[in-house]
Design a protein that fits this description.
binds pyridoxine-5'-phosphate, eight-stranded parallel β-barrel, 8 strands, alpha/beta, TIM Barrel, single chain, 16% strand
C-alpha cells in the first residue's frame, strides 16, 4: 500500500503572507502525523520564501514518521542537509522566482554534479531521491547514479486538459514506474495531485509514496488539517 507524505510548505506560505508566527508548520506536521500521515515533506528554498531554517531544525526534532527535505543540489543545501540529517533528501531543480517547482531534474546534463553530491548524503544514511520527469533517460540515469528513489513528476498528468491527455500521461507514468521498478529503484510520485486525480494514479502498482501539498493545505483551511489529511489518506490507501 503506498505511503503519503504531506508537504507543508504552504502552511509556511500563509505564515509568510504576514511575516508572522502563524500558522506554524510545526503544528501542521503534528496534526498530519496524528491523522496518520506516513511522512512530512518540506522544501527549503534558496530564498527561504516559505520554509525557514528554524522550521527544518524543529521539524527534525518533532517529526516521528519520516522527514523528507526537498532541496536544490547546491553546496549550501548539501551542508544544511548534512547538519540536520533528514530521513530523505529529494533533489529538485530550483529557479529563482518560479511559482512552484517547474519540472523534473535534468539528470543527464547534471550527471557530474549529482554524482558528487549523492554519495555524500547516502554515506550519512540519508535516503536519496531525484525528482524526475517521466522519461526513460532520466530514470536510467538515476539508476546509474545509484539513487535510492526517483520521485516521478506528475504535473503533466495533473494538468491534463482532457481525458485523452490524462490517459496518455497516466500510461506514461505507469511505464516509467515499471522501468524504475525493474531497475530496483524506490518510487515516489507527486506534484499537482488532488482529491480527484489521486484515485487513478494510486492504482498503479509499485509506487512507494505520494508527496502531496497544495491540495491538502487548501482543503485544510476549510475543514481542518487532520480531516484534510485523513480524507487524502483514505483515497490513497483505498484506491491502491
Ligand atoms: N514533489 C515535489 C518535488 C515538489 O516540488 C512539490 C511541490 O513543492 C510536490 C511534490 C507537491 O506538489 P503539490 O503541492 O502540487 O501537491
Amino acid at each position: 500500500m503506498p505511503k503519503l507524505s504531506i508537504n507543508i510548505d504552504h502552511v509556511a506560505t500563509l505564515r509568510e503572507a504576514r511575516k508572522s508566527s502563524e500558522p506554524d508548520p510545526i503544528a501542521a506536521a503534528i496534526s498530519a502525523e496524528l491523522a496518520g500521515a506516513d511522512g512530512i515533506t518540506i522544501h527549503l528554498r534558496g530564498d527561504r520564501r516559505h520554509i525557514k531554517d528554524r522550521d527544518l531544525k524543529i521539524l527534525r526534532e518533532v517529526v516521528k514518521t519520516s522527514l523528507n527535505l526537498e532541496m536544490a543540489a547546491t553546496q549550501e543545501m548539501l551542508e544544511k542537509a548534512l547538519e540536520i540529517k533528514p530521513d530523505m533528501v529529494t533533489l529538485v531543480p530550483e529557479r529563482e522566482g518560479e511559482i512552484t517547482t517547474e519540472g523534473g531534474l535534468n539528470v543527464v546534463d547534471n550527471y557530474e554534479r549529482l554524482s558528487q553530491i549523492i554519495p555524500k548524503l547516502q554515506v550519512n544514511e540519508i535516503l536519496l531521491s531525484l525528482f524526475v520527469n517521466p522519461d526513460i533517460e532520466s530514470i536510467k540515469a538515476a539508476a546509474k547514479l545509484k539513487t535510492d528513489f526517483v520521485e516521478i513528476n506528475t504535473a503533466k498528468y495533473s494538468e491534463a486538459k482532457n481525458l485523452g491527455e490524462k490517459i496518455e500521461e497516466l500510461e506514461k507514468i505507469e511505464r516509467m514506474v515499471d522501468l524504475a521498478y525493474r531497475l530496483s529503484l524506490g518510487i515516489n510520485a507527486g506534484h499537482g495531485l488532488n482529491y480527484k486525480n489521486i484515485v487513478e494514479i494510486a492504482r498503479i502498482k509499485h509506487i512507494d509514496e505520494f508527496s502531496i501539498g497544495h491540495s491538502i493545505v487548501a482543503r485544510a483551511v476549510l475543514v481542518g488539517f487532520e480531516r484534510a489529511v485523513r480524507e487524502m489518506l483514505e483515497l490513497v490507501k483505498s484506491s491502491s
